[in-house]
UniProtKB/TrEMBL annotation:
UniProt protein name: Glycoside hydrolase 123 catalytic domain-containing protein
Residue ranges, compositional bias (Polar residues): 29-38
Classification lineage: Eukaryota, Viridiplantae, Streptophyta, Embryophyta, Tracheophyta
Organism: Brassica cretica (Mustard)
Occurrences of domain Glycoside hydrolase 123 catalytic (ranges): 482-591
Recorded coiled-coil stretches: none
Annotated segments matching region Disordered: 1-38
Top-rank lineage group of the source organism: Eukaryota
PANTHER family: ALPHA-1,6-MANNOSYL-GLYCOPROTEIN 2-BETA-N-ACETYLGLUCOSAMINYLTRANSFERASE
Length: 638
């Protein structure tokens, strides 16, 4: 099947849908194959649209097709989903048939355009552990009997896009199959096929003298790659019917296709290029080194880190690379180059970056001692206009007095060269060997007294806070704002259902609500421990496995592109897209707050039913549209 071609852990095993329609399906008996050049696609395929917060499972039942109406600010990404389910088979074998999905430019009455390929992007939703999550490049889509397939449509509105009403359409066309397979492959498909086959050879050669466990892993990876090739759209019909794609004439496609009308209102508000909320998210350099076979400090190592950094910026997050040491000591850095290198200045000056991590010691070993290196770095960075973005993240979740002592010692060394430096410390409890108060909660609240003045950013776990907004108030009121103290939050492992988090299988609104919670609680920053922290692998296309002991999806927000195709571009998860949507919602709320005050903005968030607390938020998408519409109506120029 199509899913079996994707080597992601558990994907071939199916699994139950999460939060989907459990009402069953009134299935139709499959009729005799029908020629798609003579019959409208609507007679062959159910096509309908769904909001971006819905997890559309393989057993999602069809709904009426309606016009899509979207609202977007400038510099915003808005998205929705197209679901398809075959009514009958038109190839006479296991796959019901293939469809082609095409999108027109979106045009305004003034002649302005949002161009396909630049602003409009189509991706296929692929399940992971039975849950829709990976967004992979879309070619032709093979539909399977009794299963719903999904396409994710995203629209990026540029900063300078003129406001107005934009219209376009998306067409879905059933494809006819006939003839021989390989003759119909275009140059691009043939080139991609050659790359895929060469990758298989690279994986297998040489294996002489390799440890047996590595040989077994290489064989598995080569097998997965070959399976992916054989079940790709280029071969799917050949395997089942010994046929190939016979592209229909353009006018036939136009006459018989299902047409989805798309209307987009672009309004005057511009989402700030520099995010109002620094959302710093870790990327494991060790995982990159192992999976892609790049040596620490090599030219290819720099290239890989550069690719990941630049790709992640589009999601309004501020990435930092990290390497874990003993006792949760952590080396964090946003730029792998030293401060004097032009690339570091390029990274730190990028307006899309809201905050950057400065390493406490050298990322690449050199001749300088740690003290000399630290002084040089700080002296250079303090002279730059972007120094106010800098922070030091030295230790993750200190647990005892020795850990807290080390944080204070390291911070003191930094302050000797930069008294205005910011040190960030994450924590969820006080020192276990020297309780600060009679109860764990009270001890947790008193941690700033133990860290002060060696920490400026107190980053607390949302898991500990639970639904106690009174605890949030205690933390905020205890901050010494005159000493530049800030309160950030983070999620790691917990909180669990029903609280907002990014675990695989949670509702879409639950994942988007992470940033609603941050805004309502009043934190000025957010940290997430890892975006690529899956199990170790030594081949780029190796099966992706979530780490044992963690909730599925925890620490993984995107996948290696090589797992799904020959592309090296990372593959986003639905959860990463919903993270972006939440950060954009944060900007809408900030805009409303700037015009009408925080109490009014808080009232709007609750009045629309979007978010009242970590256990009370909307399960449906409509209140989100209502909230955004209210901000649009109240804040657009009269």
């Amino acid at each position: 099947t199509q899913e079996m071609s994707v080597p992601v852990e558990g994907v071939a095993g199916g699994g139950t849908a999460y939060g989907f329609n459990d009402g069953g399906l009134n299935s139709e008996p499959l009729k005799q194959s029908t020629d798609p050049t003579e019959v409208p696609t609507s007679d062959l395929v159910h096509v309908w649209c769904m909001p971006n917060t819905v997890n559309v499972g393989s057993q999602e039942t069809p709904r009426p097709l309606e016009t899509i109406n979207l609202l977007a600010a400038r510099n915003e990404r808005e998205s929705f989903q197209i679901a398809m389910r075959p009514k009958v088979s038109w190839v006479g074998s296991t796959p019901s048939g293939s469809v082609q999905v095409q999108c027109s430019d979106l045009c305004s009455s003034a002649g302005d355009r949002l161009v396909v390929g630049q602003s409009l992007k189509l991706r296929r939703v692929v399940p992971v552990l039975g849950v829709p999550d990976a967004l992979v490049p879309l070619t032709q889509l093979s539909l399977l009997p009794g299963e719903t397939s999904v396409i994710w449509v995203s629209i990026d509105v540029p900063n300078g896009q003129p406001p107005g009403q934009y219209e376009g359409e998306i067409t879905v066309s059933a494809m006819k199959t006939d003839g021989g397979c390989s003759d119909n492959l275009g140059k691009h498909e043939k080139d991609q096929l050659c790359v895929e086959l060469k990758n298989c050879l690279d994986i297998m050669e040489p294996i002489e003298g390799k440890p047996m466990d590595e040989v077994v892993e290489r064989i598995k990876c080569a097998s997965s790659s070959l399976r992916r090739i054989l079940f790709s759209p280029s071969f799917a019909e050949f395997i089942s019917t010994n046929g190939s794609f016979d592209m229909m004439e353009e006018d036939a496609v136009s006459n018989l296709a299902v047409r989805i009308k798309l209307r987009l209102t672009v309004w005057e508000f511009i989402i700030p290029v520099t995010p109002s909320l620094p959302a710093v998210i870790g990327v494991s350099d060790t995982v990159i080194e192992d999976r892609f076979g790049v040596e620490h400090g090599s030219e290819k190592w720099y290239e890989k880190l550069d690719l990941h950094f630049k790709w992640l910026l589009q999601y309004r997050i501020s990435p930092y690379f990290c390497k874990w040491g003993e006792n949760m000591r952590v080396l964090t850095y946003t730029s792998p180059w030293p401060a004097e290198h032009p690339k570091s200045d390029e990274y730190f000056s990028d307006p899309r970056l809201a905050a950057y991590a400065v390493p406490y010691r050298q990322v690449i070993a050199g001749d300088d001692s740690r003290e000399i290196y630290l002084r040089k770095e700080v002296e250079i960075l303090r002279s730059k206009p972007h120094w106010n973005k800098a922070y030091f993240y030295l230790w993750d979740e200190p647990l005892n007095m020795d850990h807290f002592h080390n944080v204070r010692k390291m911070a003191s060394e930094i302050y000797a060269y930069a008294p205005d430096a910011r040190v960030l410390t994450t924590y969820y409890c006080g020192p276990g060997d020297a309780p600060l108060a009679p109860t764990p909660f009270e001890s947790f609240v008193k941690v700033p007294n133990l860290l002060r003045p060696h920490t400026q950013i107190y980053c607390t776990s949302e898991w500990v806070l639970g639904n106690r907004e009174d605890l949030v108030k205690d933390i905020v009121e205890g901050l010494q704002l005159e000493n530049r103290e800030e309160w950030w939050t983070y999620i790691c492992l917990g909180p669990t259902d029903p609280h907002p988090n990014w675990h695989l299988g949670m509702r879409g609104t639950q994942q988007r609500a992470v940033m609603w919670r941050v805004w309502k609680e009043g934190g000025t920053g957010f940290l997430y421990w890892g975006a690529n922290c899956y199990e170790k692998a030594t081949v780029p296309s190796a099966e992706v496995r979530f780490r044992r002991g963690l909730p599925p999806g925890d620490g993984v927000l995107y996948y290696p592109g090589e797992v799904f195709s020959s592309s090296s571009e990372p593959v986003a998860s639905l959860r990463l897209e919903r993270l972006l949507s939440g950060l954009q919602d944060y900007e809408y709320l900030k805009l409303y707050e700037s015009k009408y005050g925080r109490e009014e903005a808080m009232g709007l968030l609750e009045k629309t039913g979007v978010y009242m607390g970590p256990e009370r938020y909307t399960l449906e998408h409509r209140p989100i549209d209502v909230l955004r519409g209210e901000v649009y109506n109240a804040c657009r120029p009269s």
